[in-house]
Specification:
heterotrimer; A alpha+beta; B mainly beta; C alpha/beta; B: OB fold (Dihydrolipoamide Acetyltransferase, E2P); 6-stranded mixed β-sheet; 5-stranded mixed β-sheet; 4 helices; 11 strands; 13% helix; C: alpha/beta; 5 helices
Chain lengths: 668, 158, 121
């Protein structure tokens, strides 16, 4: 024992010295992995420490240094090559050595548990190549999930609790915090992230939970459900500011089908009280007391309003000659419009829902292309009709992809141009008057109109003459021309070829507009404008003489396929018997005065007939083909063509073509 | 544009106007450039029933429904049509497209020296719809009175 | 004016590394300590803008030192220098009031990022 004490001090001194040497040398080894001298130096130091530890009887130190020595021996014999993983492992070993030494110094014995580390060394020694995969934390989560709400789903009770706690200014944020790959001490970072989240609001749920974070039992992401009154941007910045946080993806939770829609709950009680004291009238103006509504019921309500509108239209069509009737019709018109408008308001949904997939896409794509890009999202809480939300996703994705592919330059090139190495893409949504504006703006290379013209001429879209007369704006608009992008160039995003022309088509079917501004070398901005409220209706699409027409569903009673034998002649008119009613048949083409041969339908085996409510009667309208039922946006024919018989308007269909809307109220 | 100071000074001496010249069958016609908005290649025109035959149909112009007038039919000009272009015109807040064979060029003409009044010229369309004729060397370009043309409903053949 | 830093680690080698990184980053090293006890004394004396603190040290470890320093100066900016395997202790340190941590072996950009962040808030 005395000997031990005597030697203890020397042991500490020397091992401390060796440890320092080891640290220095492993660092050098990292830079010069092939340098034999360095390898030897490390080997010798490890060997010495092993010797001393063994002599002093410190088992763990001995085991540890022994294995490190063995690894280095293999490296020296060229049986193993140094790579980053091994360097990291060696450094860990040095840290453990220090810990053990500290243990001995402070407590007289080895305390730190190094069994995990030892087995790791063992695996390396056995050249277990799969070790690297084994030791990387298996992903608990599906990283490809764009919508990660499932990761932090709440139970009904949890939801209740939250909705009750929320104030009007609060939003539910679903946040994914992605840690850098080389983040060390992940559990500490995780802890810091949760801590910060708690500073920013109420932490409703986290996945991994606290325990799992402490155990480092998670992949590269921490999912958080946070209730906060702070703005999305602020939360994002605060969380992203934490060291080792690679990216923070936030989306505001829009209340979907299986959840209850919370329609605002203000905490204005004290304010209301003071207002009450001030003025009588104000107390009644209310600060919106609220009610929770089941989304399904909301949809039903919407459908019913739709039917109401349709029936109102039918009622109008009766055209009864009576003042009282006219009066009622006017009132009815006004009320149904208001009702429609109000329900449309309720259908509004924050656009953040479709924005949330983009940060990940930008990150992945910019990594793939070796570009540095910051995606800034603003106005994610801007609301639009839910029917627009689905449609806009792909066009926006295409525009952003374009920005990344062709807009933002590689860092070296940007720096040459005097721009910061990291490019910016600003995705912004806001309301302007009666429109919703969505902008995608980048500070990239801009669109080279010269090249656009070249390409357009090459593809026969314009002639050189026309090109010379075009304004800059029109040149830019050429990119929207069908045929501008060929299918080989266009990346297939959603299973269909997508080009700028499709983007335009989609936007136009939504009764919106898209245009582009660009300055060479400075950047490009795409702007999509959509009307705030849409005149939408359900329609049956039919073909008449090779043209597509839309018949508003409200006018339709049913559709049939009639066999020629079923047609009876009554007073020279073709009719059919439908459940004891006689329904006259009218050929749509004839009604529209189309210049074709009439009556050919008699030669068909099955005749498509649309039973229409026209005025008081029912008419069977014969068409060439019945296509599908769909929601259409009603557009006016303009001021030039007014009062066209049988046509009430137009709509733009998927491929950008115009389909006319039939007005069937006064047929025959 | 490339106007020198000299041209501006000369404005007091004569007036110049700019026109878009296009082809219809064998003749050249033109409309005032201030009225013409855009030149587009013909894509799908959806025919509209119950309209005069010179209304070829409607097109989708950036989300707006725009009617297209077939000038040949309007003027009663026959002959084969190979190419077609649409010039969009706007006045009085009304946007319309007119269908022509081919766009030739944009010209300046001197109102005093190069414009002649209609009756002097023999043309295949009714004189009412002609503002005049622009003479450029041997070329005779018929200047159309759009307003009259579009808003009167009679057929136009002479 | 450069920010003044107190570097605390019981290994001279480690102190050297941190010092170099910080000096390169434009900081001024005003003191070094090898134990928690010394760290506290020097803090009182020097009142540095920042302290980098090792976790395991003889005579008083980093966590205790953090606690005492924060009692002296509740706004003290302390960054823990941790080794692998010291997770629990780092969390303790942060709970005690340390602002951030860096892991050995030090990556200069990480160290500077963490340090600079403290002065940007």
């Amino acid at each position: 024992m005395d000997t031990k004490d005597q030697y203890l001090q020397m042991f500490f001194d020397e091992s401390a010295e060796y440890l320092q040497q080891l640290n220095e040398n492993v660092l050098l080894l990292e830079e010069h992995p092939e340098d034999e001298e360095i390898i030897n130096a490390v080997f010798r130091a490890a060997h010495s420490v092993k010797g001393m530890s063994a002599t002093m009887g410190y088992e763990r130190l001995t085991d540890l240094t022994h294995r490190m020595e063995s690894i280095l021996a293999k490296v020296r014999n060229k049986e193993m090559t140094i790579n980053e993983f091994i360097i990291d492992t060696l450094f860990s070993g040095l840290d453990y050595i220090k810990l053990l030494l500290d243990d001995i110094r402070n407590n007289g014995e080895e305390r730190t548990d190094i069994s995990d580390y030892l087995s790791k060394l063992e695996k390396i020694l056995n050249n277990d190549i799969s070790i690297q995969e084994v030791l990387v934390k298996p992903e608990k989560t599906d990283l490809n999930l764009q919508d990660f709400t499932g990761m932090i789903a709440l139970t009904e009770e949890e939801k209740e609790e939250i909705y009750n706690k929320m104030t009007s200014n609060d939003r539910i944020y679903n946040i994914r915090v992605i840690l850098a790959e080389d983040c060390l001490l992940k559990n500490v970072r995780g802890y810091m992230i949760l801590k910060k989240a708690q500073e920013l609001g109420y932490l409703a749920k986290s996945n991994p939970d606290q325990r799992e974070i402490e155990d480092e039992d998670f992949g590269d992401s921490i999912y958080i459900k946070l209730i906060s009154a702070l703005k999305e941007k602020q939360i994002q910045e605060e969380l992203a500011d934490i060291i080792d946080v690679e990216q923070v993806i936030i989306h505001v939770e829009d209340y979907k089908v299986e959840e209850k829609a919370v329609v605002e709950q203000q905490e204005a009680k004290s304010q209301v009280d003071s207002i009450k004291k001030q003025k009588d009238g104000l107390a009644n103006i209310q600060v919106s007391p609220t009610v929770r509504v089941d989304i399904k019921k909301l949809d039903t309500l919407m459908n019913m309003v739709g039917e109401l509108l349709i029936n109102k239209t039918r009622l109008e069509g009766l055209n009864i000659d009576s003042d009282v009737y006219q009066d009622i019709i006017q009132q009815l018109d006004r009320v149904t419009q208001d009702l429609h408008h109000t329900v449309m308001q309720i259908r509004m949904v924050p656009i953040g829902g479709i924005f949330n997939r983009f940060p990940r896409m930008v990150r992945d794509l910019s990594k793939e292309l070796d570009k540095k890009i910051d995606l800034i999202i603003e106005g994610a809480d801007t609301e639009l009709d839910r029917s627009l939300i689905d449609e806009l996703g792909d066009p926006l994705m295409h525009i952003i992809r374009n920005s990344i592919d062709h807009g933002i330059e590689k860092p070296a090139e940007r720096e040459r141009k005097g721009k910061p190495a990291t490019g910016n893409i600003l995705l912004q949504a806001y309301q302007k008057g009666s429109e919703i504006i969505i902008e995608v703006e980048d500070d990239g290379a801009g669109i080279n109109t010269e090249k656009v013209i070249e390409k357009a001429i090459e593809k026969g879209i314009i002639t050189p003459d026309e090109a010379s007369q075009m304004e800059e704006r029109d040149k830019l608009n050429l990119i929207f021309h069908p045929g501008f992008s060929t299918s080989e160039e266009v990346t297939d995003i959603s299973g269909r070829g997508v080009g700028m022309d499709v983007v335009r088509n989609v936007v136009e079917t939504l009764d919106g507009q898209v245009f582009v501004e660009s300055e060479l070398g400075v950047g490009t901005r795409f702007t999509i404008s959509l009307p705030l409220t849409l005149a939408i209706t359900q329609a049956l699409m039919v073909v008449i003489n090779n043209e597509v027409y839309a018949i508003p569903l409200g006018s339709i009673s049913e559709t049939l396929l009639v066999a020629p034998e079923e047609i009876i002649q009554v007073r020279g008119q073709d009719v059919i018997l439908l459940r004891e009613s006689t329904i006259p048949l009218v050929e749509a083409a004839r009604q529209l005065n189309l210049d074709i041969e009439y009556g050919k339908y008699r030669q068909l085996e099955e005749i498509p007939v649309v039973i229409i409510n026209s005025g008081e009667r029912q008419i069977g309208l014969i068409v060439d083909q019945m296509l599908n039922q769909q929601e259409i946006v009603i557009k006016s024919l303009g001021k030039f063509l007014v009062n066209i018989k049988n046509i009430s308007g137009a709509t733009i269909v998927g491929d950008g073509d115009v389909a006319l809307i039939l007005d069937v109220r006064n047929i025959a | 544009m490339d106007y020198t100071l000299r041209d501006d000074l000369m404005l007091e001496d004569y007036e110049r106007k700019q026109i878009v010249v296009f082809q219809l069958a064998d003749e050249e016609y033109a409309v005032d450039i201030s009225q013409s908005k855009q030149i587009i290649k013909v894509s799908k025109i959806t025919p509209v029933p119950n309209t005069p035959d010179y209304v070829r149909g409607v097109i989708n112009l950036r989300g707006q429904i725009v009617p297209v007038i077939d000038l040949r039919k309007r003027f009663g000009i026959t002959g084969t049509v190979e190419k077609e272009r649409i010039i969009t015109i706007e006045f009085d807040d009304i946007l319309i497209g007119i269908l022509v064979d081919e766009i030739k060029e944009v010209l300046w003409y001197d109102v005093e020296k190069e414009l002649e009044s209609a009756p002097d010229i023999d043309s295949s369309i009714r004189q009412d719809y002609i503002k005049g004729v622009v003479k450029k060397g041997k070329r005779l370009i018929v200047l159309i009175d759009l307003e009259k043309l579009l808003f009167e409903n009679r057929p136009v053949s002479a | 004016m450069s920010k003044r830093v107190l570097v605390v680690d019981d290994a001279a080698f480690m102190r050297m590394m941190i010092k170099n990184i910080l000096i390169d980053g434009g900081f001024e090293i005003v003191g070094e300590a090898g134990t928690g006890r010394d760290a506290i004394e020097l803090y009182k004396e020097l009142k540095p803008d920042l302290v980098t603190m090792d976790i395991t040290m003889p005579e008083m470890d980093g966590i205790d030192a953090v606690k005492e320093i924060l009692e002296i100066d509740k706004d003290a900016k302390i960054i823990m220098c941790s080794a692998m395997g010291q997770q629990a202790m780092v969390i303790d340190a942060i709970q005690a009031g340390a602002k951030d941590f860096v892991v050995k072996p030090f990556k200069p950009d990480r160290v500077l990022a963490a340090v600079n962040k403290l002065f940007n808030e």
